[in-house]
Amino acid sequence: MAEGEKSLDGLELGKEWLEAADSRAEMFRYLKEQVPQIFCLKKESSPQEEDELMQSRLFFPLECFLFGEDPQEGLEKLKQGNTSSQLCGRVFKEGETVYSCRDCAIDPTCVLCMDCFQDSVHKGHRYKMHASSGGGFCDCGDVEAWKIGPCCSKHDPGTATAMVTDECGLEPEIYGRSERLFRILLHYVTDFLVWEESLELSAELQPRTKDNAYYCVLYNDEHHSYDHVIYTLQRSVNCDQAEAQTHTALIDKESNSEHISLQPLRVEILHAAVMAHQTFVLRLGPWFQKIISYSVGFRQAFCKVALETNPDAEQPCLISRLMLNDGRMYKGESI
């Protein structure tokens, strides 16, 4: 897809979703066709090609909906008019050096990126530096994170009261769109992360043509031994020992456990379309981090949606659903 075509399609889609009586239904109508095409079904796609398709066909239209215009133009306007510019909000990459002031941080999780630390009063205090595991934020500008010196010289607005009175930093229109988008996507993410084998895709996510492709998903519960997993794989998918060992190493690469369990492994057979949506929701995590780093208003909208409860429903808030199901939640290992 050419750049001009991508921009045109994404902008048109974002506009259609904004004007639709039911934005969620329109988004799902689009996702039910695009997500399976990008993930899991096209084996010949390289990771780079898959990422490019995801950016142009999925994330770009979502950002057009969020900003109500071309995302780059909207982001520039946000930077120029954002009264909360004293908040750094830098998203840390894995291995990036971060700093915490032993004298001033409210707790050890309050950290600064290297640039903000070098331009702050904390450089002359007792401090600790360590490598980030990735995904956290620089707390420069957050008055609730520091006893003194909440801002470096680059993010200092000139008056401490400005940080206290700035509650959002977003125009009402863009805040409203962010809340709508986060509500749609966070429910979508939560539903697929706690997916059960017995569940069927909702009608709004059923693709027009359903391919006869399935995945055997072996969940990493961080308790079973290597030998037990290898034995179970050989019996479940009729593979030889060498192939089972390879799959076991891939499943275990993100974690190691000293606790051995005699409980049965959780294995599920999922349709490729379900796997495609589960793969996409995992990619949405870093995208959420990027978006909410742009403004405290986005972070407030995200938190509001994640913590809101429906008095007419029996289910808890989305964060509670994820925490309560963490032990059985989909985290990306499959064969």
From TrEMBL:
The keyword Cytoplasm does not apply. Signal peptide: none annotated. One of its GO terms (cellular component) is cytoplasm. It is an enzyme of class 2 (transferase). GO terms for molecular function: ubiquitin protein ligase activity; zinc ion binding. PANTHER family: E3 UBIQUITIN-PROTEIN LIGASE UBR1, UBIQUITIN LIGASE E3 ALPHA-RELATED. This is E3 ubiquitin-protein ligase. It comes from Liparis tanakae (Tanaka's snailfish). The lineage of its organism: Eukaryota, Metazoa, Chordata, Craniata, Vertebrata.
